[in-house]
Amino acid sequence: MTTKTREQQLDELLDKQAIHELIMAYCNAADRHDHVKMRALYHEDAIDDHGHFAKGSAMEFIDKLPEIQAGMAILHHNVTTVNLKLDGDRAEGEVYILAFHKVKDGAQGYDVLIGGRYFDKYEKRNGVWKFSHRAIVADWAYPATPSAVKLDHPFLAGAHIGKPGPDDPSYAFFTMLKRGER
């Protein structure tokens, strides 16, 4: 077993941080329906397997996102455990998520909270880490019909309310975290 030099350890740490930021950028792009940003997170030849929504080219999946997300009043992806393994300019990751979906369906809609994982493959090309393959795995789902979300609850009075797209309060608040960028 060879011991890594401090420089090698730092390079590995920087690569893992870049991949972690990629994972977080994906969640933000999904939740804000930011398809420009989403497209920038995948290599052009990447694969995405999102079950019945899309399997195949990641770019084709992203092309379908406006239609897929049209029925989503709220998307909220939360990353918990991240396991990464690096091998030069390639890496693999198992990323645990909790993803909340409030789906528009009639007057009340319904909710689905999913506990799952992303199985990821990443590649660093031209110094930038991006997804080369992403597959979603569902471990459990907790549905609620009708929706239990109450944005008009008194506890939220006066609070900024998140929204998909550029009407989200984050776009007016931030100057460094810009739409369409990592």
UniProtKB/TrEMBL annotation:
Alphabetized Gene3D superfamilies for the sequence: 3.10.450.50
Top-rank taxon, per record: Bacteria
InterPro entries linked: NTF2-like_dom_sf, SnoaL-like
Domain (SnoaL-like): residue spans on this chain: 12-134
Cross-referenced Pfam families: SnoaL_4
Protein name: Nuclear transport factor 2 family protein
Species the sequence originates in: Sinimarinibacterium thermocellulolyticum
